[in-house]
Amino acid sequence: MGSCCFKKSTLAVPINNDAGDGTLPLRVPKWKRGALIGEGAYGKVYECLNLETGELHAVKHIELLGTPEQIYREVYFLKKEIFMLKNLYHKNIVQYLYTEINNDCNGVDIMMEYVSGGSMRHLLNKFGKFEEPMACLYINQVLEGLKYLHSQGIVHRDIKSANILVTQDGIIKLSDFGASKKLKSDFIGDKEDLCRSLKGSPYWMAPEIARRSGHSFAADIWSVGCVMIEMLTGSPPWSSVSRAVKDVMELITSGQTPPLPLGVSLECKKFIEECLQVDPTKRPTAGALLSHEFLKERMNFDNNSLTQAKNLYN
């Protein structure tokens, strides 16, 4: 199954392949699609071979289905996602490469950096729950990525293990920006900057998102706490209470917090509790969490070395 099509769509909302810096357009190289490596609400992700350089990339394919009005709306939101992606440059953010829209495939293909280690969810399924030092290694990098995103005015809105990729060297890459939103400021009281749409995955969703009461960067911090629970238990938050989405949403909107992992250190418990404060204005920023005592005490090895982390399991 491959794609080397270059015939552009005539949709009223075109998606241009540009360099992201206002200069010359980028020519999309010839490429061939490979195996399916991921699937979610915002499209399917495949391996992809650049036939001109021999490099491996990942390609996110989004089908354009429905009425012309529905397709117009879909392309509009894709343009917003691509605009955000092409201007992001950080070691903990998956790198955007190209976009191609064609009539033959009736969809949009977004080429991204290929992260060979797969998702954190894949690692949890394969190796089981992480110990605290391993969780620190990963969450520290998640926070670095979020600190950068928030500095760019972007709230991710769907932080979870399935959207956190891991390289073979243990470097974390935040991915899947289909639910992301660019804000004008970080002031959560500014009505113009409050996202009110229901975006994200229920088990990791902050109360203010579930209630549609408006949310900002603090929503990502709630999800950080949920990812900590996920890493330390091996299961999504709320799993010990209910796996029914309706039940979980009722718990979240009522102001309850997911159960904490058993047997964790006091510092770890405090870290998670600070992330999971129901009042979003009381949650620390990503930058503040990077200086949290829990991370400072546990980060005794190089963030860039997975080898040292593996020794924890020997």
Overview of this protein structure:
The N terminus is likely disordered. The longest helix has 20 residues. The chain folds into 2 domains: 83 residues, Phosphorylase Kinase, domain 1, CATH 3.30.200.20; 194 residues, Transferase(Phosphotransferase) domain 1 (Transferase(Phosphotransferase), domain 1). The N and C termini lie far apart (41 Å). It is 32% helix and 16% strand. α3 runs antiparallel to α5 and α5 packs antiparallel against α7. It has 10 helices and 9 strands. The strands form 3 sheets. It has a 5-stranded antiparallel β-sheet with strand order 1-2-3-5-4, with no helix packed on it. It is of the alpha+beta class. One of its GO terms (molecular function) is metal ion binding. Keywords: ATP-binding, Kinase, Magnesium, Metal-binding, Nucleotide-binding, Transferase. InterPro entries: Kinase-like_dom_sf (IPR011009), MAP_kinase_kinase_kinase (IPR050538), Prot_kinase_dom (IPR000719), Ser-Thr/Tyr_kinase_cat_dom (IPR001245), Ser/Thr_kinase_AS (IPR008271). This is Protein kinase domain-containing protein. Pfam families: Pkinase (PF00069).
Topology:
Layout: E1 31-40, E2 43-50, E3 56-63, H1 68-85, E4 96-102, E5 107-113, H2 120-127, H3 132-151, E6 154-155, E7 164-166, E8 172-174, E9 181-182, H4 207-210, H5 218-233, H6 245-253, H7 266-275, H8 286-289, H9 293-298, H10 306-310
Antiparallel strand pairs: 1-2, 2-3, 3-5, 4-5, 6-9, 7-8
Helix pairs in contact: 3-5, 5-7
Structural shape? globular
CATH topology-level name of the largest domain = Transferase(Phosphotransferase), domain 1
Question: Helicity range of the residues?
Answer: 25-40%
**Count of DSSP strands:** 9
CATH superfamily of the largest domain: Transferase(Phosphotransferase) domain 1
Q: How much of the polypeptide forms β-strand, as a percent range?
A: 15-25%
Briefly note the structural class of the backbone: alpha+beta
Mean pLDDT: 80
Q: What's the story with the biggest beta sheet?
A: 5 strands, antiparallel
CATH architecture of the largest domain: Orthogonal Bundle
How many DSSP H or I helices? 10
Low-confidence stretches: 1-15, 17-25, 185-199, 301-306
Walk across the major sheet and give the strand order.
1-2-3-5-4
**Rg calc:** 20 Å
Q: What is the class of the largest domain in the CATH system? A: Mainly Alpha
Binding site for Mg(2+): 163, 176
Organism: Stentor coeruleus
Protein name: Protein kinase domain-containing protein
Active site: 158 (proton acceptor)
